[in-house]
């Protein structure tokens, strides 16, 4: 998701509907803004009118000005949607499932699933190669590998620098104050990456589980989504079915409680 605070609009990558949705929070309206509802089978770079162009598993998005950048996991590409012209098109990636650096038109990704930005560069959780990638928004618009092996089989759990780092199917990435927070999903950890150097260190979590605590004493189970607000990091701890909150000053992890909420199939309607 991406939130436009000024206009109170929430943009959502509706993955299995293969669409982008916009929620107007002021008027409580939901609108499809891109995609046809059917999965695209075209992996070649292309584009067109947003609601007439089929997408292939949009997994995450980020808003920069009037442009929405989208991690299109199904076709292994990064796309862009211009909110003024309503045109959606490939931004980077040839459609091959690989890790190829270089220009936008010669680069390749492998199931990109998370996207964030510092305004100068997009940062991608490139899941199937367990790698964090950078995609330039300003000249020179190049694609680079920040950390991870770039190999489809190069997964593991190793802190370090650049190509020596090993992640395992990272799904979430969030930029905040010159660092990248990474949900290293299949390692059940949250890691901190320096985009300028490629240094990657485990900050939260150790083995799979469900435990509050400080730093590496905490436990997660396939965390997949991240969001930073002020001095708090919020984690979608997927297989624990919980939202975890991290105090970034102390690295203390707590589990958020939502009073009065229940799953739709067990809620008792009021009369």
Task: Give structural notes.
The two termini are 34 Å apart. The protein is an all-beta fold. It has no helices and 24 strands. Strand 7 (67-72) and strand 8 (77-82) form a beta hairpin. It has strands at 2-4, 9-14, 19-24, 29-34, 47-49, 58-64, 67-72, 77-82, 87-92, 102-103, 112-117, 121-126, 131-136, 142-147, 160-161, 172-176, 179-184, 189-194, 199-204, 213-214, 223-229, 232-237, 242-247, 252-255. A five-stranded antiparallel sheet has the order 5-9-8-7-6, with no helix packed on it. A five-stranded antiparallel sheet has the order 10-14-13-12-11, with no helix packed on it. It has a five-stranded antiparallel sheet with strand order 15-19-18-17-16, with no helix packed on it.
Question: Which terms summarize this structure?
Answer:
single chain; mainly beta; 5-stranded antiparallel sheet
Percentage of residues in DSSP E strands = over 45%
Average pLDDT score: 96
| Helix and strand composition category | mainly beta
Mind summarizing the main beta sheet? 5 strands, antiparallel
H/E element string? EEEEEEEEEEEEEEEEEEEEEEEE
Quick summary:
With 271 residues, the chain is mostly beta strands.
Walk me through the topology.
Blueprint: E1 2-4, E2 9-14, E3 19-24, E4 29-34, E5 47-49, E6 58-64, E7 67-72, E8 77-82, E9 87-92, E10 102-103, E11 112-117, E12 121-126, E13 131-136, E14 142-147, E15 160-161, E16 172-176, E17 179-184, E18 189-194, E19 199-204, E20 213-214, E21 223-229, E22 232-237, E23 242-247, E24 252-255
